Amino acid sequence: MKRSLLKNLLFLLLLGINCIAVGAQDTQQLPETSYGPAIDPAKGYLVAEIDERLYWVTDGLYNAMFLVYDEGVIAVDAPPTIGQNYLKAIAEVTEKPVTHLVYSHSHTDHIGAAGLFPKGIEIVAHEDTKAILERRKDPRRPIPTKVFEKNHEIVLGDQLLRLTYHGKNHIEGNIFIHAPKQKVLMLVDVIFPGWVPFKNLGIAEDVPGYMEAHDIALDYDFETFIAGHVTRLGNRADVEVSKAFVTDLKETAQQAFGKVDFMKSAQETGFEDKWKMYNTYFEKVVDVATAEMKKKWDGKLGGIDTYLRDDVWAMCESLSVDF
Ligand SMILES: [Zn+2]
């Protein structure tokens, strides 16, 4: 019952997103860069080869990838919104069985459909991801069977996937997944090609690490970028744009703290209710930074009116405690 309710909600969400996208196209509310390839609504997903038997699969909100080698398939992530369609997508291009599954990180929305794949396959993840999943005890997210600390290579037939952990960013255990032959880099929930980050910088647990991840990504040799979200594949330019956005966000937020007079704000709220005093001041700083950022970024990235203020909030919060 619970599961079918969740499925219905996800379906409605996807349907809603498609409707919004169509409506937005009419009213020019989203920039061109936010749109991805059309997805056949009857199928609900799209699968396409990037290069040399490396495929991406998307439902227009989530994306994952899989690599076909001579005896099987290595899947990377298993988002529940794609769910059963993941198996259909793989079956469209190969009859070979899935033998390996890589978890980018521990979050359910990216790996919660892992149970789709045959029992007994090798599940590879960072050791921190395994530690988190052991605590979660979630049957939808089986415990990894192979973990690593810094690097791990999956070499099968003539295919290679390089997994590397560069430290905490979005969450501990979130890894960089590189297919050197295909020049593809996958990093989930950090860069959102064509869009501002999801709420609160994609729910970044470590904002300095989140920012650093951009430079680490750009050090890789890649042409195609798979972000886990949103509508399309990314490229180096998308990573550069995201880096410019978060760099600007940090500077703008820093300046905003200097533009709002704390004592003046506190005199308005009074000093007795400490939370109100602080929060009112903080809200004013966030408002100033959001207005500045909107002036500079409106029309360049999608989702500004939805998540820009939350992204600013997360940066202001991080500036208060991390930097
Ligand atoms: Zn995540």
Summarize the structure in short.
This protein is of the alpha/beta class and 323 residues long. It has helices at 2-27, 84-93, 108-111, 127-136, 199-203, 207-218, 236-259, 262-269, 274-297, 304-321, and strands spanning 46-51, 54-58, 63-69, 72-76, 98-102, 122-126, 146-148, 151-156, 159-164, 176-179, 184-186, 224-226, 234-235. It is elongated and about 70 Å long.
Looking across the biggest beta sheet, what order are the strands in? 1-2-3-4-5-6-7
Count of alpha and pi helical runs:
10
CATH superfamily of the largest domain: Ribonuclease Z/Hydroxyacylglutathione hydrolase-like
**Ligand roster:** zinc ion
Number of domains: 3
Shape: elongated
CATH class of the largest domain: Alpha Beta
Secondary-structure-derived class: alpha/beta
Question: Which percent band covers the strand fraction?
Answer: 15-25%
Low-confidence stretches: 1-6, 14-27
Please report the total strand number as a whole number: 13
Q: What string gives the helices and strands in order?
A: HEEEEHEHEHEEEEEHHEEHHHH
Biggest sheet overview: 7 strands, mixed
Going by CATH, the architecture of the largest domain would be 4-Layer Sandwich
CATH topology of the largest domain: Metallo-beta-lactamase, Chain A
Mean pLDDT: 93
Distance between the termini: 46 Å
